[in-house]
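Let's practice the habit of predicting before peeking. Look at the sequence and jot down your guess about where helices and strands might fall. Then scroll down.
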Amino acid sequence: MSKEWHKSEEFQRCCREFHDACARQPCGKNVDEAKKVLELIKPYIAEKMAGQRIFELKRYEHRGSTYEGVKIAKSPTDQDLEFDVMFVMTGGRDLECHDMGLDGFAKLKLKSNAKPRELFQKTKEKDTSYISAIKTKNLFYSHLDGCKLKEFKEDFKGTDITCIVVESKPAKYREDFKGDGLTCRLFDHGPAIKVVVYRDQDKFFTLDLAPHFDLNGEPGKEEMYVSKAKKKGSNDIQWLRSYSLDEKRKFDGMDRDNGCRKMVLRTMKAFVKSRSELSWLTSQHLKTALFRTIDAQQSWKQEEFSQRFMDTLGTLEECLDKRTMPSYFQPGTDLFENYKEETMEATKCRSCRLSNNGPLMTKLLSSSISKWKPANSVSQIV
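Done guessing? Here is the structure:
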């Protein structure tokens, strides 16, 4: 519920200054050049993977905050350019979902009439028809590593990039860099394989490439699954139902009325990032809180930005109080399923304290702004 101080001119100004300083989108020449490089890397990877006759690309799908317009820069001098791309593998329609849990994780099993594929033979769990998520991910990594990306060279017209050299070495070997082009290195990163692209030995951007199966195959009715750890840092890798494309479609045109919905989410992400006691909350939690607030609030005018920000924080607080956050696209899945009760209680108490204390909230936002200030603002980065 909105309080009078949420509407005050002082708090509105403070929220907007916080957004402009700490929650700006990456922009400028680097972003445009990174996208050009990405579009050259994608077909090369697809061709090389197909040549190894295991992973056949059905299509690429862009997903994540960069494509949704809710990505925020890491700092005034680091735009933290990141592109999340789905590598949708051929063969999804030969699989069916079994034993979906409250946390959205499930098993994928071969249908009785499934086409014989070498991918399935190499990734089946022993003496079953179930496809192993960890085997699939590990095999994908090894094949991507074997693409000989270091042979990929291209002239980038209109940029100062002359060539690209790709290696699979840890960052500590960066002194081995040679030439004046790009160096790319592979890292195992959660559900995705992280391709870190360096330019002049400095990080340029990252590509998170995650293998997915689409069990449906119809545009707009995708049923995506990605291999992911059930808990952060865990070796228990399972298949997770992904709604990334549904999220992307919801963000598309979201603020065509010149609303402040994406501003609110970027502000929420920056605020959570600035508070250690809230840092366990994921982008998925914040998006879900925003979507539910959008359903509850009709008006998202720019002048209502501070109110909608606090409304979204209030939606998050309600979920913490109930100890459950149903997935927006699959209400039977609880996004809080694998989190500890005491963690949610502590976060709820902190959130409640902030939402009821205008001077404290204003002070916290202002202190975060001051940490970004003596450097140039994000909007000045090119």
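How did you do? The first strand starts at residue 57 and ends at 63.
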